[in-house]
Every structure is written in structure tokens, then in C-alpha cells.
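Input for the complex:
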Amino acid sequence: MELLESALGADATARCGLATSPVTAQEAERIAPIFKALGDPVRLRMASMIAAVPELCVCEITPAFDLSSGTISHHLKTLREAGIVACERRGTYVHYWIRPEVLDALSGLLATA
Amino acid sequence: MELLESALGADATARCGLATSPVTAQEAERIAPIFKALGDPVRLRMASMIAAVPELCVCEITPAFDLSSGTISHHLKTLREAGIVACERRGTYVHYWIRPEVLDALSGLLATA
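Predicted:
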């Protein structure tokens, strides 16, 4: 199952799912942290907010949550390290965008149909 | 976004993704634990093993991991509580099977294309 090999590159056309061929221990070590990053309600909402638009300034993300800016930054860092979002600083603020190839690869991994 | 409403019922035809309409705080509280359950390498492998066959006896799962039977049971319980697998005891052993409607609903949630 070379799914995430391609997915975390750029080409997510390989669609071998969990139900097609069991993930190896090595693949699981690489893929699980991506699910873990989405496994927190705040991070899931952040990922969803970011995914719904071309890009989002951290200054637009922060007001949506009743959390300190440090906590917000920490969650965004987790999403970035998992490869779910990418970011770039422009002046004062960091701007985030989704990496659709990663979401689509996860989607393909989970699909059983 | 009524995705998981339907998904965790039976009909996963509603395909509104993260990227289509942001999840609400309430939806995130319900969905995140499912991702969290998959966010551990051992549980991800277990889910994948179970998904790859019609059903699997715990006595076939245990030998695949260098873990105590208590730890194995704990991970399986987490997958069951998240709704990813279902199970039934038959005699000495518990048998597990995947809930494809849940995997397919998560898949639909993540798909951006």
C-alpha cells in the first residue's frame, strides 16, 4: 500500500484503502499522527475552517475560539507538522491553507466502497 | 453539515466535506474522537486488519502485536466506542468486524475533490 508514499508527495491517485490491504507497522507509524492531529475538536474545526477557504490569516482563526493565542498557535503547529496545513508569514501574521492532497489521500485510505 | 448524523446511522450518502462547510463545535466534539481512535499506530493497524476481512476473532488479532491481551482489549474497546468496529462474543472469543458506513462517512468528510 503505497498510498501515503504518494499522498504526502503530491500524487494521490493511488487508492488502496485500509480495507483493501492492511497497513504495515511502518505505514501506521506515519499515518496515525495525521489522524491524531484531526482527533481533537479544536484542531478539527481549525482544519475545516482553513479547508473551506483558499487561505486564512491566523488573525481570522483566533477570534473563532475562546483560547489563548499560544494555544491556538500550538494547535496550528500540530496541524502543520502533520502535513494537513501549510503556512507562510506575511508581515505581522501567518497565513494558513489546507493541503488538499493530504485530505484526499486520507479520504482514499478510509473509503471502503 | 449532517454528515455524521447520517453516517453514524446507516445512510452515508450525504457528502458534505470539511472543505465544503466548516464543522460546528458540536459536530467536532462528535467526530474528533473517531479520528483520535485512528490516531494511534496500533489501533490503525487493528482497524485495517479488521477492515480487510469480513470479520476477525480476537485470537487472530492478538498474535499480530507484541502487546499484552489487556492492552489489545483496551485498543479494541476504543475502536468499538468510536463506532469504527462492532463485535460479538461467540463462546470463548470476541469477533470483530468493521463498520464500513463509518469509514465511508469519514472518507466523505475528508474528500475535497
